[in-house]
Design a protein that fits this description.
Largest sheet: 6 strands, mixed
CATH superfamily: Metallo-dependent phosphatases
Order of helices and strands: HHHHEEHEHEHEEEHEHEEEEEE
Number of strands: 14
Strand content: 15-25%
Distance between the termini: 36 Å
Bound molecules: fe (ii) ion
CATH class: Alpha Beta
Radius of gyration: 18 Å
Number of domains: 1
Strand order of the largest sheet: 1-14-2-3-4-5
CATH architecture: 4-Layer Sandwich
CATH topology: Purple Acid Phosphatase, chain A, domain 2
Shape: globular
Helix content: 10-25%
Number of helices: 9
Length: 303
């Protein structure tokens, strides 16, 4: 696990006084649910929809997706990745038990954690650690890998590493399966902390290797393509969290094309999956037309 990035170090110290949203223009900031929390709370209260929104936020789903990939080494055909993102774990007490219930009898080869374990500030870190430990203890597979999100403190990354999660902070590892190898690179946050370093993370990865990128915000997709990644796994958007009928996101969370806000997507030669996340953000513990998910991804070699 790499040391804390200087940008993250500065902003983590600063964030309790003032959140700095890097690279946010006026329009982009309006796509964030945080900006609208007070108004959303008021609307849910006067319309009586708060209970329904909370029930939706607790209705965690296991989704299953087949991901067809060119150049996937044949020994990784049918390899299963359990992808869990955006825990915001202090926000809802029921999340650990809901996750454990869904994965109890589930078979998967690797687990990847997409960041945003923390929700509140450092005062709530003991709760975050306790709940994340409970979840990690129930993950049974060949390897657990994680990255940091824009809500996270570096300290939660150190803690996860200490309990068996391989944290990838602008670095990569190799995964071997019956003599064949793929590369998994993980980035630090590119949304608020501006501490993602894709060049560092990909240093010494052979150009013709099969590469998976784990990055909290999907906004990195153009760079992921440029660096030759085959698959990008992201979260951050919560798929909108508060959506219109049909799952149309009102708040995309970041200025990205609508097609990469949720689920499986393609951008030229890059395939991506953006998780809807398990938790809720913006101090609005509610979801509409957009249920929380943990995603079981089955990789398939595209014939
Ligand atoms: Fe999040």
């Amino acid at each position: 696990m790499n040391k804390i990035h200087p940008n993250r170090l500065y902003l983590e110290e600063y964030r309790t006084k003032k959140h700095k949203y890097a690279k946010d223009g006026f329009f982009t900031s309006l796509t964030r649910i945080h900006k609208w929390s007070a108004i959303i709370h008021f609307i849910l209260k006067i319309t009586g929809l708060a209970d329904k929104g909370l029930a939706n936020a607790q209705n965690l789903q296991l989704t299953r997706t087949t991901v067809e990939l060119e150049n996937l080494p044949e020994n990784f055909d049918n390899c299963r990745i359990l992808f869990i993102s955006d825990f915001h774990i202090e926000g809802l007490e029921s999340i650990p038990d809901n996750i454990i219930r869904l994965i109890e009898n589930l078979e998967y080869d690797y687990c990847m954690l997409g960041g945003d374990y923390n929700h509140y500030n450092m005062m709530h870190m003991p709760t975050a650690k306790q709940r994340m430990k409970k979840i990690v203890e129930h993950l049974k597979c060949n390897g657990i890998y994680g990255i940091l999100g824009n809500h996270d403190y570096y300290e939660i990354g150190v803690f996860l590493q200490s309990i068996g999660v391989t944290m990838l902070i602008n670095e990569h590892i190799t995964i071997e399966r019956n003599g064949q190898t793929i590369y998994l690179a993980g980035l630090d946050d590119c949304y608020i902390f501006d501490s993602a370093d894709i060049g560092r993370a990909t240093k010494h990865i052979p150009s013709d290797a099969f590469k998976i990128l784990l990055c909290h915000s999907p906004q990195i997709y153009k760079q992921a393509l440029k660096y030759g990644f085959n698959l990008q796994l992201s979260g951050h958007t919560h798929a909108g969290q508060i959506c219109l009928p049909g799952g149309i996101a009102i708040f995309k969370g970041v200025n990205i094309p609508r097609k990469i806000v949720k689920g499986l997507w393609n951008y030229k030669n890059l395939t991506g999956y953006t998780s809807s996340g398990v938790g809720s953000s913006g101090n609005v513990t509610a979801r509409f037309f957009c249920l929380p998910e943990i995603a079981l991804l089955t990789l398939k070699t595209k014939k």
